## 1
Amino acid sequence: MTTVDRGPDTSRENVADAKAAAAGLASSRKRRPGWRLLLGQPLFVAVVVIAWAIWRSQADLDSIEKRQLDWTLLGRLTLEHLKLTVVATVIVLAIAVPLGIALTRPRLRRAAPLVVAFANAGQAAPVIGLIVLLAIWLGFGFWTAILALCLYAILPVLRNTIVGLQGVDPTLVEAGRGMGMSNRSVLGRIELPLAVPVIMAGIRTALVLVVGTATLATFIDAGGLGGLITTGIRLLRYPVLISGAILVAALALLIDWAGRVLEEVTRPRGLE
Amino acid sequence: MWDYIAERHAQLLYQSYQHLSLVIQCVLLATVLAVGLAVFVHRNPRIAALAGGVSAIGLTIPSFALLGLLIPLAGIGTATSVIAVTFYATLPILRNAVVGLAGVDSTLIESARGMGMGAVRTLLRVELPLAWPVILAGVRVSAQMSMGIAAIAAYVLGPGLGSFIFTGLTQIGGKNALNSALVGTLGVVLLALILDALLLLAGRLTTSRGIRV
């Protein structure tokens, strides 16, 4: 490839990559995402949600709309959505980070490109198809949705873990060895801390992917705010539909923001 | 499954064609929009950074939420899916176009100017050709993403293979549910691979000879 072609963006080929590039990795290259964005995003979300809440408390709704937009129901759907997001992300972390570490150890290093290629190929499948197929296979419900979300979100974390660990300057590892550190303490005290920013970028990408995809969980009765959108469409009740869309978007932006904050907080202090 | 495909091959081909044509048209439109916008903003680093931010935030919004927001405006059907797919397709291309144009060596622009080229000619003959591989990488990302979003848009009666997936969902338990969902999903994967190959080929043909491998 030529010099121009070698841009940091050429190797990205799929949805996760698009989001990784746009949302995660780009900011890992920047030194600081800028506090204005870090404050502006939750502020914007707060304004939107408050405006919506004011509208909701005053709007003239018919009985169906009232039932769908009941405060306790809304709270429950939001909690379900968060639960889907958090559980799926935690499982993804528990699998992808250790796997990524294992795939950068000398014994398994050669398998790394293979695993990433496989994960990449899986990403080409449309997520709605994945969800429906898994539901046909395993039945409707929460854990089927979790499985689909995990399959979908594992790639960014896995790849960023591998890339982050491979990006550690080998002379630093050498220096650690020279100081008499064991393999394990080289990993724990040099490699992982240095790779944390890249790994965190992958985790944030996974969070954003999961919170968006969890919207589709309602199709297989796994709950979440997507239910408002499908109900709104099915009953042609625009207030329900738009409320659902606004709340989902607000939640996604908020999760994205939480990921950004997490990225800032976990960045090792020596890395600036 | 083969029986299923054989029985419905006409419908399957038609929906595949619709899916592919929706994605190609939206991605083309998105490319024009995004490159135009990038050309417009790339000289000003602050606005360019803003474009990057908008691209990141936009991709955060779940596609199903955007579809929901669009229905009251565009109704149920093709218009909504075209707008949604184009919206998401624009973002990665915009980001890559901004990055690509910013990555053009300023000494090259300087020398183009020195040779007497105007701003437009510099753009068309130096900057865009040099940024093209990066822009094209964005187009490939867009194309694949659009394939998935177009499938979701079938829920609001957008055209394409997503309708097979949703048929599978509604007929769950029936004997053709699995066939329908599987055909829809694999069809989208196949179309995504075909389109990606076409884009790679287009990339070979449209990349300036000087920077080709």
## 2
Amino acid sequence: MKKKTRLLSLIALTAIVAVGLLAGAGFAQNAKHARTAATSACLVTDIGGLNDKSFNHLAYVGLQAAQSKLGVTGRVIESKSGSDYIPNLLSCVQGGADITIGVGFLMADAINTVAAKFPDSKFAIIDFPQEFLASKPANTRGILFREQESGYLAGWLAVKELVSQKKPLVLGAVGGLKIPPVDHYIAGYIAGAKAANPKAKVLYGYSQNFVDQAKCKELALGQIAQGAQVEFAVAGQCGLGALDAAKEKGGWGIGVDADQLFLGSHMLTSAIKKVDVGVFRTIKQVKGGTFKGYGNTTFSVRAGGAGIGAISPKVPKDIVAGEKLLEKKIKNGSIKSIPTTVP
Amino acid sequence: MGPDAPVVLELAGITKRFPGIIANDHVDFDLRAHEVHALLGENGAGKSTLMNILYGLYRPDEGEIRINGKLAHFTSSKDAIEAGIGMVHQHFMLIPVMTVAENIVLAVEPTRAGVLFDVGAAADRVREIAEQFKFTIDPYARIQNLSVGQQQRVEILKALYRKADILILDEPTAVLTPQEARELFGILQRLKAEGMSIIFISHKLNEALEIADRITVLRRGVKIDTIPREGATEASLARMMVGRDVLLTVEKTPGVPGKPLLEVAGLEVFDDRGLEVVKGVSLTVHAGEIVGLAGIDGNGQEELIDALTGLRKAHAGSIRIAGEESSGDSAREMLETGVGHIPVDRQRRGLVLDFSLAENLALRDFRHAPNSRLGWLFPNRLVARARKLLKEFDVRGGVPQTRAGMLSGGNQQKVVLAREIDRDPKVLVAGQPTRGLDVGAIEFVHRRLLSERDEGRAILLVSLELDEILSLSDRILVIYEGRIVGEFPPTVSEEELGLAMTGGGRGSGEEAA
Amino acid sequence: MTEAPTPAPPPLPEAGTDAAPVNFVERYGLLQRSGGVATALITASLAFLIGGLVVLATGHNPLSAYREIFNGTGLNWLFPWVNGTDRTFAAMNLQQTLLKATPLMLTGLAVAFAFRCGMFNIGGQGQYTVGTIVGVWVGSSWAGIPGPAHIVLAIVLASLAGAFFAGVAGLLKATVGAHEVISTIMLNWVAFYVGSYAFGLGGPLQNSTNVSVPISNDIATNAHLYVFWGDPILQGLHIGFFIAIGALVAYWVVLNRTTLGYEVRAVGFNAEAARYGGINVARSYVTAMAISGLFAGLAGAIDILGWQFRVGQLDVQASNIGFTGIAVALLGRNTAVGVFFSALLFGGLINGTSGRHLSADVFPPQLAGNLTLIIQGLIILFIGADVLVLYLWQRAKRLRAGKTPGAVEVGT
């Protein structure tokens, strides 16, 4: 037994060492991401990962668009935990990226650190105002969105639809964490609903989670039990649970960030923020030499960076037309100062 | 039956080697029709190995097996079962929550009939077999509600149900009370009369002499001889087993009792279910005295031992150790006061089987110098001390670093004994100290207990073995249903003791105190 | 002997040695005794092999994937022929690997210590979280006190908080018999929600200047652990690594050289025998759980003081250091040396499979991270299954040599 054990461990050890040597020997020929004359952009996701079907995914879509339309070299790195942020950003900078984009407010500190350390490189961060970065690095730009405008449109549309269906004017919204982008959406949603009909009532809550669908579903079911006819899910993957609850109970669902109408016939529309547009335009600025650090670019409905997605074909034409009109009013500034905080 | 009965089973030149040891060295063995053939040997003599080979669990390195003259090759127990061999292991292979009939039938066709078998028919068949051999067993009783003896009968029924005509019983009496053992012997006689051939594995000489027609003795893997029962004596068998003369009953000089070291008065103890199982026990053990506590198992002995050693809180009464009031003390306090304890179950309580011998030997006093100081343990000192104790107590098969689980039962018990005696206790509570040991080890333990008595310790010997009680004790108390029902001198007859143990004695609680 | 009504005696299982192990801890104990280091190596090798097959199945070359992973761990730094910028990158990668291995060693110890006392501590995650909460609270308060004192204070209080938190589970087991698996899982959620609340908007530990972000205050700069290798700004390797090594040594010493460790091991192997030996089993449960929690709390503290410097609400929710610690302990067989190497393996694996090392032409970025999870999952699966592997192995051997599985006595 002893002998056998030793033999087997020896074999296993040899195998491991062999693989190791092989890998090590190959290192020299492992071409690092070669620098080319083309503009290069590097995207670092937060811990949500590329498959979040939300803003990390959309940022990647924007990068891919830039690759195909602008001919830039693109690279994307997923972060698996908080300790990945700095090494990932570093990897972008050392790989020679002309612009390094961090996705999400979670990356703020890491961007702040790395941007301060490499003043000659360019950085951008999505969903975080540049002036809130501790060292306010001059080579960094914040990419922000007016989620409240998207929420406003969605809330207005939902109430109009309920009116036409002669249903009680009760809306639900399920947020993930109570963070600014989430609250922007919900605040706009409430304002839009009230604008459509002052009697409209909005129930909202936070699941404290962006991942666990069961938590959002539970919250949504509670709101539906209190009469909510529409569920606005503002919680990433977790939010899919809220939409599921709406489907089960015969209510409407409203998606978030990306166009989620494909989820089924219970979907009314989606309040979207076009992170892809934000990323694409930022890269375009870098390529065109117009990128400036220090400050924020805010993408609004007017700038084509916010709005709502496709609308359910079940919605009457006149309401859809009314929504288009409302969009115009937001664009031309006749509707302004939509609240960004939830009461 | 007789020398001319046909041979139904023959093992010829069986050799089985394990790394570093030859478990069976060219062993020949044969079994005739209608006989009970005892296979006798000390622990580690190779009895179980031989039977596991016969039952298809091991494959022999050399030698052959013949069933009714035909060469047999067993690759698994299934082959052996098909050849008509049934085995009752020491540890029963029964499912506690299922009924007798279900267990018996499941064992035969575990896969094919698993879902669809006919319980009614099975129960009828079980009842039929049981009646044939005059068993009393309810086919619909659940195993968990049966006594150990009854469970063993289920195991035998299982073999009979599978139409076995050769039955192997591996140390069948080890788990039985004397009464159950007696009933088992009755069953075996009936089985024999009905045409079964039985191999009876044991290390108990008296059982072999009582039940067997022929006796084969193994020693260290070698067959010593096969002899008929007629003419064999315990002494002659013991000599064959151990290889030297063995004193089956130790010679004992009368004890010289000194001052009382263990005084128990009006002790009441509850069991785990909250029932009062020790009902006002009073007893005294003096220095230099062995007091035997006889009784049928389950009459409160275990709870009494637990209470005396601080492992269970007494409900009422007092315990004085060397004059010091100790009732309510924890196990550790009892240890410190000077109570040694040889537990009934050495593997579950007496030893940490995964610890080394050195660590086990320190189990009771690892907190004290020189084993440790201010919480620091000194493993080297543990080892040094272990080396000394292993030598003194003649523990074989291990060095201080050996895992306790690697030792044979007898040597494990020596380790327990060494540990308890080395602490120099005033009072030693010994619970069935020779349970499961073979004659050589029993002799050692008995001698040692007597010499410790002569050192001036007070020893309370709790045992189910009357022989042991009678040969070691200076006084004998009998416990029945939680009460001391009689006190006897060591010259008392087994019959009288037996009567008292079943509650029919002359004595009453009062006169025992 | 007289005929008597026979009271049914309790069954007397003579051999504890060959009785089938009933619960996970016992099964695992059996494995530990019989497998040695071979099973751990085989387990890891098999997991890598099958992970490679998975890579192959996706149409990529497993060898180049593993080569990139290996270089990603920075272990090529050990090869003398790697030089120039490659060496710089390798050093940085190795720093990150060790940075990740550091808390894993500690959460691995947290699981291992409880295991040695016969308990399964699933609560390493919660204890780690409590450690981070207290660590960041102490570290970001009292900016005035001198650095070393601040560090010691933060580490000690965070470790004690972890100890207390785990001790609750131990206490519940000791007093009312609540199973530690259940209670530690529930305590994980307590920590999760306490953390979510504390760092959430409006929470007591939320950033005082930046009120719109659910993140804690930064800890004082002079309370950062000294970075001894790499750039202190860019997450170099801090001296917490040596604290973890020290904890490994302490673990070994406590278990093998103190009466406390003796008691813990005795209880872990056989609680009844320990009780018989005068050991207070209930107290051992509490102590062992508390020490377990101490290790996990320490992990939280040194992560905070070493590189994280602040905690976000999402960090609390997304962290799985404590859970990975379970795998570390299992693969490391609950020994100090084993935990060290398996923490290195897991740290290397997590770091090496990061998307920044796998170039898109070798492995698509969407799949890269999942490869870590696949290999981790496989390792855990094989750890669970290697009892089976062992069984089959011994069974095969028995047929050749004639030995029963698990039997330790030869014949009777």
